[in-house]
C-alpha cells in the first residue's frame, strides 16, 4: 500500500505547487518546482528525460514523459519506478479552494521494482529518506520571491492528516511489477499489468479491476475496498476480491489490512485445478477426478503473517465432499494441522464409472458391481506420483463414512495422519470393512523412491468381498480374523505387488468354496463344479517377492480333515497349491486322502487329482509291506544261488565267512598248488 502513498504524494505535491504559483511562474519553472517538492516528500531523486507539459484549461494537468524515481541507496537494481508517461489532471475550481479532485490519472508502461535487502530493509519505505518540511525547494522559493503555499498540508507529516483526494478514474496500462527478496532469493514478476481504479474520495470505497500475467496465463481481478484511508493507515477495512484465471475463480469477502492480515469467507469454483495453479506458476500433476482435479466450496479463512486458518470448510472434490477445520503454519515448509470429515470418500485413481455403487459396510456386493479392470489385464504399471508428500508436513485427524480405493473398499474409518519430510503415517483407530473391524497402521514413504508398509489386525471380515477386491476372486465365503505385516516398494502398483514381503495369519469360521466339490472328487475321483462347505479354516503365510507361501492350511469338511500347502504368485497372478482332504472313516478308520492340485492363472486355474500324492499318502503301509516281502524273496534267492556256487566249485565256507571270501580262499589255494608243481616241489 505504500506504493499507493507514493503515487498520491506525487500528485499532491504537484498540485500544491501548481495552485500556489499558477499565475506567477512560467511552465518550465513550475514543473521544476513541482519535481523538487515531490523529491522532498519522498526523499528520492525524480528524473524526467522527456517533455513536461502543464495545462490550465479546462482543468489543471501535468504530463511527463520518460519519468523515473531513484531506488534506495542500498539497491543496485536501477530506478525503483520508470514509466513512459505519467499524466495527471485536476479540477481547477475545487483546487483553488484546497480540494483535490483528480479528473485524470494515467500511467503508461510503468516498470516498478520492489525489493527487500539481505538485512531486511525494503525500498518502498521512504520514512528514512524524507526531508524536513523546511526543505531546499521551499527555501529556494522564498529566496527568489516565488509564491509557494507554505501552510499547505504536508502528506509526509502525520499531523497533517490524509489529503482530500478524489479519483474518478485512474488507469495503468502495460505495466511491469517486479519483486525481489534478497534474503530468500525469491523473485516474482507481474507483466502486462492493466489496472482501472475508481475512488470518489480517499475515505470512501475504492474499486479496482484489471489483469496481469504471472506465469504464462492471464489472471483477471476485481477488488473493492470499503475505505482506502483505513488501509493506508494500517487499519482493517472491508474488502471483496474476485480472481479469475484459467480453469476457475476464487472469491473473498471480509476484512483486510496491510499487516498482512485478512479474515472472511473464501469461495472457490475451480473446474481445472492444474490449469488454475499453472496460471500462478505452480506446477500440479493432473489429479484424479475425485481427488482434486476440480474444487468447489467455501471456508472461513483467517490469514496472518505466519499462519493461515480455515474454519467451517465445505469443499467438493469431484464426487467427494470434505468438511472440517485446518491450520497452516507458514515460514519454510508449510505445516498443516486440523480435523477433516471425508464423508463417502473415493480414492480411486480414475473417475467413478457410471452406475457404480458401494455397499454400506464397504464390501463389494458382486463382481458385476466392480469398476476396476478385469484381473486378466495385470497390475497397472503407471507411475505413482507421491511427490506431494514432500511439499508439506502435517498432523491431521480424520474420519469417513466410507472409503473406496483401487484395491479395497472400506466402511466407517477414523484415525490420524502425520506427514514429515515425505513420510506419511496413518494410524487407524477403527476401520469397518466387509462386515468386520480392524485396527493398525499404514506408512507411505516418498523420501527416496516410494515404499509402503501396513500392520493390521481384523476380525469378522467377509472373505468373499475382501478377496474379490484384492485379487478378483469371490469363490470363498465366510468370516475371517486376520493379522498382517506387509512391506513393498516400487513406482507402480505392479512394482509394489512384485516386491511385496511380510507375514500373516488368518482363520475363517464356517464357510464355503464355490466352484469345486471336494466330496465329489473323493467319492468318484472326478473334478466337477460345485460347492464345498467347510468349518474352522486356519493358515499362516510368508510373502517374499510378491509370492505368498503357505504350508499349514487346515480346515474341516463333513467327515474330512483337510490340509493344504503351496504358493500364490501375486505378481504373475498365478498359483500352485495342493489341498489334501482326508476321509477319516475310510479304510476301516485309517482314512484315505485324495490331494487336489490347483495350478495356473487364478482366473482359470486347472484342478487335477495329484495321484503321486495319493500313493504317497494312502498306500504307505502297503508299499512298506511289499518292499519287505520283496526283500525277503531276494534274500532267499540269493542264498539259493550261493549254495549252487559252493557246490559247483567245491567250496565250503567257515562260520561267518561269506561266499565271496570262501571262493577267493579256494582260488588262492589252487594257485599255490599250481606254482609248487611248476617248481617240482610237490
Topology at a glance:
Elements: H1 2-21, H2 27-42, E1 46-48, E2 52-55, E3 60-69, E4 81-90, H3 92-96, E5 100-108, E6 111-116, H4 136-144, E7 165-181, E8 186-199, E9 206-213, E10 218-225, H5 228-232, E11 237-245, E12 248-257, E13 261-270, H6 273-279, E14 295-303, E15 307-317, E16 320-329, E17 335-341, E18 344-346, E19 393-400, E20 402-404, E21 409-410, E22 413-420, E23 423-433, E24 436-445, E25 451-462, H7 463-471, E26 476-477, E27 479-489, H8 493-499, E28 501-508, E29 511-514, H9 518-524, E30 531-544, E31 547-557, E32 560-569, E33 574-583, E34 592-593, E35 596-601, E36 606-609, H10 611-618, H11 620-649, H12 659-679
Parallel strand pairs: 5-7, 6-7, 17-19, 18-20
Antiparallel strand pairs: 1-3, 2-3, 3-4, 4-5, 4-6, 7-8, 8-9, 9-10, 10-11, 11-12, 12-13, 13-14, 14-15, 15-16, 16-17, 19-22, 20-21, 22-23, 23-24, 24-25, 25-27, 26-29, 27-28, 28-30, 29-30, 30-31, 31-32, 32-33, 33-34, 33-35, 35-36
Helix pairs in contact: 1-2, 2-4
Can you walk through the features of this model?
This protein is an alpha+beta fold and 682 residues long. Among the domains are: 201 residues, no CATH class; 46 residues, no CATH class. Helix content is 21%, strand content 43%. It contains 12 helices and 36 strands. The strands form 2 sheets. It has a 33-stranded mixed β-sheet that branches. Helix 1 packs antiparallel against helix 2 and helix 2 runs antiparallel to helix 4. The chain is elongated. About 8% of the residues have low confidence.
Comma- or semicolon-separated keywords:
682 residues
Amino acid at each position: 500500500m505504500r506504493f499507493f502513498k507514493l503515487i498520491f504524494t506525487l500528485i499532491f505535491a504537484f498540485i500544491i505547487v501548481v495552485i500556489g504559483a499558477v499565475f506567477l511562474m512560467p511552465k518550465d519553472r513550475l514543473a521544476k518546482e513541482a519535481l523538487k517538492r515531490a523529491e522532498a516528500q519522498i526523499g528520492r531523486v525524480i528524473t524526467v528525460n522527456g517533455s513536461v507539459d502543464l495545462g490550465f484549461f479546462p482543468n489543471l494537468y501535468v504530463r511527463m514523459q520518460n519519468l523515473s524515481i531513484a531506488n534506495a541507496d542500498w539497491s543496485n537494481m536501477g530506478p525503483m519506478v520508470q514509466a513512459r508517461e505519467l499524466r495527471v489532471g485536476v479540477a481547477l475550481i475545487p483546487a483553488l479552494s484546497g480540494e483535490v479532485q483528480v479528473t485524470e490519472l494515467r500511467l503508461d508502461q510503468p516498470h516498478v521494482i520492489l525489493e527487500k535487502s539481505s538485512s531486511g530493509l525494503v525500498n518502498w519505505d521512504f520514512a528514512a529518506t524524507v526531508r524536513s518540511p523546511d526543505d531546499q525547494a521551499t527555501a529556494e522559493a522564498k529566496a527568489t520571491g516565488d509564491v509557494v503555499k507554505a501552510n499547505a498540508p504536508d502528506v509526509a507529516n502525520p499531523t497533517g492528516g490524509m489529503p482530500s483526494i478524489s479519483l474518478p478514474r485512474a488507469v495503468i496500462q502495460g505495466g511491469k511489477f517486479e519483486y525481489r527478496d534478497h534474503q530468500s532469493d525469491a523473485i516474482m514478476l507481474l507483466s502486462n499489468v492493466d489496472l482501472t481504479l475508481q475512488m470518489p474520495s480517499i475515505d470512501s470505497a475504492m474499486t479496482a479491476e484489471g489483469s496481469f500475467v504471472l506465469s504464462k496465463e492471464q489472471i483477471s481481478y476485481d477488488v473493492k475496498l470499503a475505505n482506502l484511508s483505513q488501509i493506508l493507515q494500517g487499519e482493517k477495512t472491508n474488502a471483496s476480491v474476485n480472481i479469475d484465471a484459467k480453469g476457475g475463480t476464487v472469491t473473498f469477502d471480509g476484512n483486510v489490512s496491510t499487516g498482512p492480515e485478512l479474515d472472511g469467507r473464501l469461495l472457490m469454483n475451480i473446474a481445472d485445478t492444474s490449469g488454475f495453479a499453472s496460471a500462478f506458476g505452480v506446477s500440479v500433476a493432473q489429479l484424479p477426478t475425485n481427488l482434486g482435479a476440480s474444487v468447489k466450496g467455501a471456508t472461513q479463512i483467517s490469514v496472518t503473517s505466519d499462519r493461515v486458518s480455515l474454519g467451517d470448510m465445505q469443499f467438493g472434490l469431484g464426487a467427494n465432499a470434505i468438511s472440517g477445520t485446518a491450520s497452516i503454519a507458514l515460514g519454510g515448509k508449510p505445516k498443516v494441522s486440523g480435523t477433516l470429515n471425508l464423508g463417502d470418500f473415493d480414492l480411486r485413481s480414475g473417475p467413478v464409472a457410471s452406475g457404480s455403487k458401494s455397499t454400506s459396510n464397504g464390501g463389494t456386493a458382486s463382481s458385476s458391481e466392480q469398476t476396476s479392470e478385469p484381473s486378466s489385464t495385470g497390475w497397472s504399471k503407471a507411475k505413482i506420483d507421491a511427490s506431494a508428500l514432500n511439499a508439506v508436513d502435517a498432523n491431521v485427524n480424520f474420519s469417513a463414512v466410507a472409503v473406496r480405493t483401487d484395491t479395497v473398499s472400506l466402511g466407517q474409518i477414523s484415525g490420524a495422519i502425520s506427514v514429515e519430510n515425505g513420510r506419511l503415517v496413518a494410524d487407524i483407530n477403527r476401520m469397518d470393512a466387509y462386515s468386520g473391524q480392524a485396527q493398525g497402521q499404514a506408512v507411505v514413504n516418498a523420501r527416496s523412491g516410494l515404499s509402503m508398509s501396513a500392520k493390521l489386525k481384523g476380525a469378522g471380515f467377509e472373505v468373499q468381498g475382501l478377496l474379490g477386491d484384492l485379487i478378483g476372486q469371490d469363490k470363498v465365503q465366510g468370516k475371517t480374523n486376520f493379522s498382517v505385516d506387509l512391506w513393498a516398494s516400487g513406482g507402480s502398483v505392479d512394482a509394489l505387488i512384485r516386491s511385496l514381503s511380510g507375514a500373516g495369519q488368518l482363520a475363517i469360521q464356517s464357510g464355503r468354496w464355490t466352484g469345486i466339490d471336494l466330496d465329489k472328487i473323493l467319492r468318484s475321483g472326478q473334478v466337477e463344479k460345485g460347492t464345498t462347505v467347510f468349518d474352522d479354516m486356519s493358515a499362516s503365510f510368508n510373502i517374499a517377492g510378491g509370492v505368498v507361501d503357505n504350508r499349514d492350511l487346515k480346515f474341516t469338511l463333513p467327515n474330512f480333515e483337510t490340509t493344504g500347502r503351496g504358493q500364490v504368485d501375486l505378481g504373475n497372478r498365478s498359483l500352485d497349491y495342493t489341498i489334501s482332504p482326508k476321509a477319516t472313516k475310510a479304510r476301516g478308520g485309517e482314512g484315505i486322502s485324495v490331494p487336489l492340485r490347483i495350478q495356473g492363472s487364478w482366473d482359470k486355474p486347472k484342478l487335477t487329482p495329484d495321484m503321486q500324492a495319493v500313493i504317497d499318502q494312502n498306500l504307505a503301509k502297503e508299499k512298506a509291506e511289499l518292499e519287505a516281502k520283496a526283500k525277503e524273496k531276494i534274500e532267499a534267492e540269493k542264498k539259493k544261488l550261493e549254495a549252487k556256487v559252493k557246490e559247483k566249485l567245491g567250496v565250503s565256507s567257515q562260520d561267518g565267512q561269506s561266499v565271496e571270501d570262501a571262493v577267493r580262499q579256494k582260488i588262492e589255494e589252487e594257485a599255490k598248488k599250481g606254482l609248487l608243481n611248476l617248481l617240482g616241489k610237490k
